[in-house]
User: Fold these one by one.
Assistant:
Number 1:
Amino acid sequence: MSNNELTNPELGGIEVHGMTRSSFMLRGALAAGAVYGTGAVAPFVSQAFAATGGGDVDILNFALTLEYLETDFYKVKAKQVGLSGEAKTYAKAFGDDEAAHVAAITAAIKQLGGKPVQKPTFVFPATSQSSFLKLASVVENLGVGAYNGAAPSIKSKQVLAAAGGIVQIEARHAAAINLLLDKTPTPNAGFDKPLSKKQVLAAAGPLIKM
Amino acid sequence: MPEDSGIETCAPQPAGIVERLVRDDADRKRFLKMAGSAGAASFGAFVLAACGGGSKSSSSATTAAAPATTASTSTGASAHAGDVSILNYALTLEYLETAFYAKVIEAKLFSGKVASLLKDFGAQEKSHVAALAAAVKQLGGTPVAEPASKFPVTSASQVAMLAYTVENLGAAAYLGQAGNIQSPEVLAAALSIHSVEARHAATLGTLVKKPITPDGAFGKPADMSTVLAAVKPFLA
């Protein structure tokens, strides 16, 4: 996907690298961003929060923020834009899936004795069905990379199983949306690339309102 | 954990165990019994138990792979034995998928965009085979040989439906092993393949007008026994 295809050029600039060990160390950043506004913290938060530890609750809160984003996108933004045909059908079905992910992750955080992050306010630069679908492709593919990047750091087998069950759905959504856009359903060819928290933040940050 | 000596004897035989799981109902039942009702099936535990339970007759397999095992320390072998088994299991599935797509492409049942997608998917499965075989070797194991396979290829709609089934099974198979993998690197590799299988499955779902997310909002895992029973008809 080239940058100029996107309404928001920042989203096109998602850089994908091979996974590094240091990427596992960046924890808690998006959770903090959800509370304080990612735009405000994104430039330095990854570094700052890398030292504060992390763990499954932080990873789950990171995921929860992304799932809130996706749910809002499909359930609220889709209505504002006004979709038709398959795009409308997908938005309805995918929105329900994302809402189910929000509920499951929130429950998992509580079960681990953690505090789920508040739902942030989002801003989506989509004004037409076409720009909505392009942003959907970015968001869903970002979700796949985010889960694949975070999953190897998860300690609990149950949390890992849940994350695996969710990332599979994000991948299915991503493929279907890409097909609707006449793009390849497998943009990373045979191996989806894991994204570090920093990379996810850089891409999702502009969608989270301060 | 059982003693390391048991692992050293058994670790070189993942291929034999996979084969036995596929062909032998008694082994599958024993596996299920061991997996228990908790659902936390540990393939590693199964490997050890299967070896202890009477694999002495398959001494040729043990001998063939023995150098790789003795090269590692006993703790290294025990840490890797489970991952090697899982990787070889995945390798078997990827070999089957690769053979399937090769046969489909050869049959020329599709044209245009769909043919191009199937060709891409076939190439991706082939890249999974190469990556998994390399990972097995990196862990000091011996990659399983490609199994002889047979797939019914009669019509475009039948093939697309079979592909949809196979890809959904593949996604479920990877998901079913995620919790059993010890190495973070192996887990990362398995996850990066898992989501690609899911993309294939969803794409085929749109082609055959079947659900993109047949399990709903959460992909359901499938354990090794279930998967191997499902692919049994495709082994020649």
Number 2:
Amino acid sequence: MRSVQIRYYAQLREALKTSAEEVEVETPVDERALLERLAALHPRQRDLFLASRIAVDDAYAQPSRSWQGTELDSGVDIISPISGG
Amino acid sequence: MTGKQMDAPLPDPQLVGLSPNPLDIQALRARVADPAAGAILVFEGTVRNHSEGLTGVIALEYEAHPTMAQRVLSEIVAAAHQAFPIVKAALWHRLGRVELGQPTIAIAVSAAHRDEAYRASRYIIDRIKHEAPIWKREICSDGTSGWSRGCTAHSGN
């Protein structure tokens, strides 16, 4: 288990009423597992989490990538469905 | 002009940016003007009065990831330079509230010929729709507002 800072934006931040939280995560963890963990913590936002992507160090995670732990020290951004342009 | 465009690195920040202020389309156009260009194409995305299942939209409110959005936009413009023989490309995206009819994004591309400019401009806006960590809230005339459901609901512009 490892404590990871999770940061939220836009609709997820408003729905959760917080822009960041510390979450205990089992490592190694990949994008899908992390989103499932967050969806389990916040079941009312499950659909939004499962439609989201994650970003580490300002780059989208590759779905096949998994992290052991220290790479997540800078935290994880949850990129809920985007609508720019 | 400070924006000497190179092949591989990310573009000059003045060519790619997010701004809380109204977009100056003529200023953006000037950043891509070049003696080698036979075409300059400026695309504007604007606030329209309806959306998926919504009418009476009077404004949009944009939020972007504070650091990643600039990086993604810059990478997309750099990739356009790799993919198409264009001369220069620049784009600005709004943050904050944008009123009906006003531009939310402007993309300027210069190229020797029009075809490359059209293709590169389309490439840039399509990738932004799918990749840029930017969110918009739709504000309606009845006082309600909500986050847009995402780019899949916005095919075409």
